[in-house]
Fold:
Amino acid sequence: MHRPFKYIPSPIQQLHEHVAEIVGIWCDAAGAFSVDLIQDAVLKDLVGKIEVRKQKWQQVIADIHELFRQLTPAERKAIREGFIQNNRIEELCSKTADPVHYSDLPELVRQPLKDFFTELYTGVLNRKPFIDAYKTTTKDYFDKLIETSDLTICPFCGMNSLKSKYQDGRDAFDHFLPKGTYPFNAINFKNLAPICHECNSDEKLAKDPLFEGAEKTGRRLATFPVSNEVAAVTVSVQFELI
Ligand SMILES: [Zn+2]
Structure:
């Protein structure tokens, strides 16, 4: 990645805040799940309206809640800390924090959490109840993001144009830290970078910027993809006849 993007405020980021509340409820799970455990009024409404895998999102959340009731206090504490740790994207990139992987999570909740976090992007963010609640779409956010960040070219390859607000559709968001590898940050917008179709389909895929090679032999420094100081680089070239 050769160009950072700016972190701009958007109501779309509320989904990450909602997920933080849900994880907190799970980690405190004592009795059975009830929507009354949810404090945020918008989230309380959304869980009953959004459907994931042909069931209410509320039911998905309740099922995972039941599993958390079986976890030990130490396991819950590790998950609570893992949520915080994996959302410290800048510190993970600079190696001042270490990430938690799905493989580090208790087996009982590993796959349900992977499904839950993977589906946030495809199954919640783009659903009508969420769009209606926050009056914004991923295209609105994408267009504003690349305009504010002065990005017309893909920040990964530096070659392909990104779709502008005047075109139908949009290019993709890359999960900089792959959502299949790292729990808890699938909907953190500091981890979602604009990327061209070719890079997203053929190049970046699920490559892990935090570890060396396919064998993941060691930690490495990664470029934090967010900067509100997007500097323009001017290159001047002078030719001399000799
Ligand atoms: Zn590209």
